[in-house]
Amino acid sequence: MKPLVIIPARGGSKGVPRKNIKLLSGKPLIHYTIEAAQEVFDNVNICVSTDDEEIKSTAEKKGLFVPFLRPNELASDTAGSYEVLLHAVEYYEKQGYFADTLILLQATSPFRSAQQIKEAIKLYSNEIDMVVSVKETKSNPYYILFEEDQNGYLKKSKEASFTRRQDCPKVWELNGAIYIINVASLKSKLISEFTKVIKYEMDEYSSHDIDTPFDWQVAEYLSAKK
Description:
By secondary structure, this protein is an alpha/beta fold. 27% of the residues lie in helices and 22% in strands. It contains six helices and ten strands. The chain has helices at residues 29-38, 53-60, 81-94, 114-122, 183-188, 213-225, and strands at 3-9, 23-24, 27-28, 46-50, 101-104, 130-136, 146-148, 154-156, 172-182, 197-201. A six-stranded mixed beta sheet has the order 4-1-5-9-6-10, sandwiched between helices. It is globular and about 55 Å long.
């Protein structure tokens, strides 16, 4: 494996302003993810992709070298993760490093561990498109998720006659913590078009993702309890 670890960290954040460098239990949020990555990979293979000088400086305090700031077109609210990943891959290729496996670790998942990253990597092979971390969802579409029909009446998202939630098929949701991506697949199609995808299941604690002020409050509670 020739890995490239990408930690995206945009400066603008509407849900929790400046969340990537906001202190969680006295430590910048992004440091949790950097430290987990450093337990698995060499610093030279870890790329913090940011458009923000302060985030760059915060990341470099952990011993990383942040080699670039994202161009303006990749720093807006509408910039997609796909383009950000390709930009980083292409940057390293221009420097002579041709990664075959991309490990995407989002800074908003502070409780994902190095051990979990290692376990996810063990599931990966170059014959698949991606290993992605998930958690079992409580919002099962066979049981408690509904959609409106053309008459405005609610109907189950997936038609079924289960009377107990525990009888329903298991359903997983992406938790945003770990993505192990085949670079060849990334170059040939969108991530949403991947068909050979394997799950890596995580517990609810490790899956906690910070997107809103409430999520941040929960993270503070979880961090204090730990």
